[in-house]
Amino acid sequence: MRRVYAAGVGMTKIDRHYDKGFQELVHIAVKNLVDDVKMFSPEAIVVGNMMSSSLYQQDSLAALVADAAGLRGRGGFKVEAACGSGGHAVAAGYALIASGLYDQVLVVGVEKMSDYPTATTTSALAQAADFEHEAIYGVSFAALNALVMRLYMHRYEARREDLALWPVRMHEYGSQNPYAQLRNRITVEDVLKSAVIADPIRLMDSSPIGDGAAAVLLVSEDVARKVSDTPIQIVGVGMGSDGLDLTSREDLLNPMSVRIAAEKAYKMAGVEPMHIDVAEIHDAFTITALLSIEGLGFAKLGESWRFIKDGRFASGDKPSINLSGGLKARGHPVGATGVYQVAEIVMQLRGDFPGVKVGKAEYGLAMNTGGVATLTSVIILKR
Amino acid sequence: MRRVYAAGVGMTKIDRHYDKGFQELVHIAVKNLVDDVKMFSPEAIVVGNMMSSSLYQQDSLAALVADAAGLRGRGGFKVEAACGSGGHAVAAGYALIASGLYDQVLVVGVEKMSDYPTATTTSALAQAADFEHEAIYGVSFAALNALVMRLYMHRYEARREDLALWPVRMHEYGSQNPYAQLRNRITVEDVLKSAVIADPIRLMDSSPIGDGAAAVLLVSEDVARKVSDTPIQIVGVGMGSDGLDLTSREDLLNPMSVRIAAEKAYKMAGVEPMHIDVAEIHDAFTITALLSIEGLGFAKLGESWRFIKDGRFASGDKPSINLSGGLKARGHPVGATGVYQVAEIVMQLRGDFPGVKVGKAEYGLAMNTGGVATLTSVIILKR
Question: Is B83 a catalytic residue?
Answer without folding.
Answer: yes
